[in-house]
Amino acid sequence: MIKDTHTSPSIGRPREFEIEEVVRKAMGVFWDRGYHDASLPDLLDGMGLSRGSFYKAFSDKRGVFLRALDVYIDDAIRKVSEMLSSNASPKAAIREAFSCYAELSSGKDGLRGCFVVLTATEMLPGDEEVLIRIARLFRRLQDLFAAAIIRAQALGEIDHSLNERTFARFLVCQIQGMRVLGKAGADRDDMRSVIDLALKPLT
């Protein structure tokens, strides 16, 4: 666990912070304000760091932003992997994963949106480093869904004629579309009806 120690000018004693913890706090600032509108004072306040500690740990705003994006992407990949392996029935696991995204795409969570979608809208196509990261996320999500489809086909739950790569790509596109609809205030019933339609080829 990486820690940084600095002396607080107000109380004159060392203060420790965990890098991942403050990166997650920075993520919240970028998520709410976007990359370009998040000022250094916003970040220092949100992360609870002095200016000196910030620059010692991250060098600049872009450095902490890319770290935050990496953390979000790693979290997303891990969560989907866990969801798709949480049920003995891969077909049921795919539906459960979509149900989870339906919740994330409605109500308060839906209005906040997806950090990656918001970042892509703001930063792409011109930012190569961001492009590489977001492309990696979508590629890994497609891989995970394709693997679940293959497992379901092996168990006889899904027709073998269904192309796992094409359908996995469709599912990822559908998920991201749900997150965008959530920003426009879609409710849970809207999202659940989308799930039934999107997963119809699995019946």
UniProtKB/TrEMBL annotation:
One of its GO terms (molecular function) is DNA binding. InterPro entries: DNA-bd_HTH_TetR-type_CS, Homeodomain-like_sf, HTH_TetR, Tet_transcr_reg_TetR-rel_C_sf, TetR_C. The keyword Transcription regulation applies. It comes from the Bacteria. Keywords: DNA-binding, Repressor, Transcription, Transcription regulation. Residues 16-76 form the HTH tetR-type domain. Pfam families: TetR_C_13, TetR_N. Residues 39-58 bind DNA. PANTHER family: TRANSCRIPTIONAL REGULATORY PROTEIN. This is TetR/AcrR family transcriptional regulator. It comes from Allopusillimonas soli. The lineage of its organism: Bacteria, Pseudomonadati, Pseudomonadota, Betaproteobacteria, Burkholderiales.
